[in-house]
Amino acid sequence: MNKEHAQLDELWLNVLQAYEDIEKAVKASELLDEYKKMLLLHMKLEDDYLFPRISLHLGFEDDAPLIARARDDHKILLKLLALTEEAFLEQNIEKTLVAGNNFKQASIKHHERESEIQYPVSDKFISEEEWQEILKSIY
Ligand SMILES: [Fe+2]
Ligand SMILES: [Fe+2]
């Protein structure tokens, strides 16, 4: 999962780079589609599978507080991504870059939090084999 974060971060930098160059508008929208697909799958895996498992493990029927926080992060990220996309469709490059950089910062923070808080918890009780099964069912 940390590897996937690194891939997402790198792909987003490519999106931002393509945004900076008006000639690369087609490339930018292709990269954005690729990014969105990967992000939505990653979030689905966390929201539908990983987060409920962690909450249950910690003894919560509903979301544990640390999970509620991560879910809020996801909502904010999707909002920032939509703002970026909107600005791009309006062909407002300046606004696109501001929104895209806000997204970048929020995403980096979120990944840091997951790798320091949520992932280490799940690492303690989800085995490598179970992970492989989960990944197979999603991807
Ligand atoms: Fe996440
Ligand atoms: Fe994640």
Overview of the structural elements:
The chain has 139 residues and is mostly helical. The chain is built from 5 helices and no strands. The chain is elongated. The structure holds fe (ii) ion (2 copies).
Output the keywords.
139 residues, mainly alpha, binds fe (ii) ion, 5 helices, 86% helix
* Separation, N- and C-terminal Cα atoms: 13 Å
- Relative strand content: under 5%
Average pLDDT works out at 95
pLDDT < 50 stretches: none
Biggest sheet character? none
Instruction: Evaluate the radius of gyration.
Output: 16 Å
**Topology order in helix (H) and strand (E) letters:** HHHHH
Summed up, the helix count is: 5
Silhouette:
elongated
The helical percent reads over 70%
Q: Based on DSSP secondary structure assignment, what is the total number of beta strands?
A: 0
Which class of secondary structure composition applies to the elements?
Answer: mainly alpha
* Distinct small molecules bound, one entry per kind: fe (ii) ion
Q: How many separate domains make up the residues?
A: 1
What is the gist of this entry?
By secondary structure, the protein is mostly helical.
What topology does this entry show?
Blueprint: H1 2-20, H2 25-57, H3 65-89, H4 93-123, H5 128-138
This protein binds fe (ii) ion (2 copies).
